[in-house]
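DM from R.C. (forwarded with permission)

"hey, sorry to bug you on a friday — could you get me a structure for this? deadline for the figure draft is monday and I only need the backbone to look sensible"
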Amino acid sequence: MDASEKEPHFSERGEAIASMASIARTLSPSDITSHDATPSHANGNTLSGNQSHVNGIATGPRTRNISSKYRHVAAAHSRARTSCLSHDAEGIPSFLGFRNLMVIVLIVMNLRLVIENFIKDLQYGVLICIRCHDYRRQDLLLGFVLYLLVPCHLFVAYIIELAAAYQAKGALGRAKRHLENPPDSAQAAKSFRTTWLTIAWAHGINATLSLLVTSLTVYNLIHHPLIGTISEVHAIIVWLKICSYAFTNRDLRHALLKPGNASSIPELYSACPYPRNITLSNLSYFWWAPTLIYQPVYPRTSTIRWPFIAKRLAELSSLSMFIWLASAQYAAPLLHNSLTKIASRDLPSILERLMKLSTISLIIWLAGFFAVFQSALNALAEIMRFGDREFYTDWWNSPSVGTYWRTWNKPIYHFMKRHIYAPLVGRGWSPSAASAWVFVFSGVLHELLVGVPTHNILGMSNSPGLLRRFLQPEAKG
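My reply, with the result:
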């Protein structure tokens, strides 16, 4: 076979290879780069310039070469890895999408039921009515009087501390004058204890009256639950503030008279040492500050951001309206219908109603939590230029019930830890016993907060009778 017969064979082979290269460049252009400065063919012939050769035969201009011949062998599994939701995952994934999805599902599910209540005009109708509420003039008047009267106990606490500071300065001056001729130590110690007991009793009576008068008035004379709840909450807050004011100034007064213990006083307080903190302006700031812990000095911000306050107040108004609508249009009819299911003693129906009530209760609780701890307290903190705004932490990630109670309400937690738990442990109590006492104290406050406005503070005493009534068979005929 001569050379003229072999040329078509090589030409057809070169055209096929060039066509395959063109297809590869079309499918994966990013992988087609110059492999070497002077690429060579598989048969050892060097490709120079813009010419591409196949078995020594030029096939036309060529600008790119294929970087890798095998594109289906990349190692997708190159190392050991765990699923992102596994316990031993390298990092904690973000659940922002799940949170948004849950919020959307909750809103849609409950909005459907609210709309259903609106549609059933013959059964429910529009249940939102301002005039339907029993706002008695007596309730409004007593609530207003209590709102003005309760803070007066803070002023009484200021008068007591002013007298105590005057006595402490006098005792300090007498101690300096009698360095050379000290008085009878027994007589001085007795006078010192008498003075401290008098101050303690004065603060105790004042704080007790502030809470007792309000609780008795709300329980016996105020019948509207909202007005009663606002009055009782205000009284409890002021009562806690009075206690913190008295306890803190007692320790500061003791550090003044016993300079050896002054090292335990925080450095922050040096800007306003005792007794310079016993002023009306200092007490007034503590009265309005979003905290239950008294300090002579607080971290402060430099300016007031009024747009920030407007946003928080808008959130507070919107959430309050939502809670009102959800309670009146959805929760109230559901609760009313649940009473018949409970009376029928149908366990599946009771469980179904309890789950429905738990859903709307959770939504209302979450809305109330955000309205109080995020919107209201932040707005008040901005107005007062209060710097420490950690009113809560991520309680939704709590691994235990104890962590939840320590993180969802930081103002109460700080008060319990500083004024109840730490002093009890310092007196020799075990941490578990101190925690139990804190739990009991918190339960008493919650009973006052819920039982007094609803006039059911002794309701638990009737629980055996209610249980017997629930269990006894119905009368026939």
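R.C.: lifesaver. The two ends are 121 Å apart (CA to CA).
me: no worries. Strands lie at 51-54, 57-61.
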